[in-house]
Design brief:
Number of domains: 2
Structural class: mainly beta
Order of helices and strands: EEHEEEEEEEE
Strand content: over 45%
Helix content: under 10%
Strand order of the largest sheet: 3-4-5-6-7-8-9-10
Radius of gyration: 25 Å
Number of strands: 10
Shape: globular
Number of helices: 1
Largest sheet: 8 strands, antiparallel, barrel
Length: 192
């Protein structure tokens, strides 16, 4: 005898009563399992492929809300550079990598939440990269070196694939003559 809410389904083993509630629960579970979480990489509005990554360290503390770098004017070309990266999804992260001719820098980002301003990002950055701006004639003799993975925080804007934030750790800027400056905090930004 069937209870209220049960339907008959014919299977290989003959007639069996299956609760409509069980079917509904199984369908809902399958649907939820196939959905991305709000913080999954595919939900972020980054643009995969070619992007520009910029890194800026500051010699004076009144220029930004980060700790100043030192020594001042070392290297002489400054502590700011930009270079192209290739941005892809790997596992649960967005990963930006330089080409071998620019360096071996790798930036890994993932969302840890969202607000009205955008997605809150966390991740790591490691490796090195030299200045390689879009206009080659403006290339400066400066390179950033992050020997070990450093902590990255930031925000990915809601309306455009533009992200910016902070790197904390041991960050070195150097040039071909060996002039070196060190920072504990720098700013970064990335956009197509």
């Amino acid at each position: 005898m069937r209870r209220a809410g049960e339907r008959l389904f014919r299977g290989n083993n003959g007639l069996r009563a299956v609760s409509a509630q069980r079917v509904t629960c199984l369908l809902a579970a399958a649907l939820l399992a196939s959905c991305d979480s709000p913080t999954s990489p595919s939900k972020l509005n980054f643009q995969a492929g070619f992007n520009w990554l910029s890194i800026i360290g500051y010699d004076l503390d009144d220029l930004a809300a980060v700790a100043p770098c030192g020594p001042i004017l070392a290297p002489p070309a400054g502590k700011a550079l930009s270079f192209p990266v290739n941005l892809v999804i790997e596992g649960g992260d967005w990963v930006a990598r330089t080409s071998a001719d620019v360096g071996d820098l790798e930036l890994r980002l993932h969302s840890v939440g969202s607000s009205g301003a955008g997605h809150t990002l966390e991740g790591t950055i490691r490796g090195s990269a030299k200045d390689a701006p879009a206009e080659a004639q403006f290339t400066r003799d400066v390179k950033v070196v992050l020997a070990a993975p450093q902590r990255v925080t930031g925000t990915l804007q809601v309306v455009a694939p533009f992200a910016l934030g902070r790197v904390s750790g041991h960050i070195v800027f150097t040039d071909s003559k060996g002039s070196t400056g060190t920072c504990t905090e720098i700013d970064w930004s990335m956009s197509p």
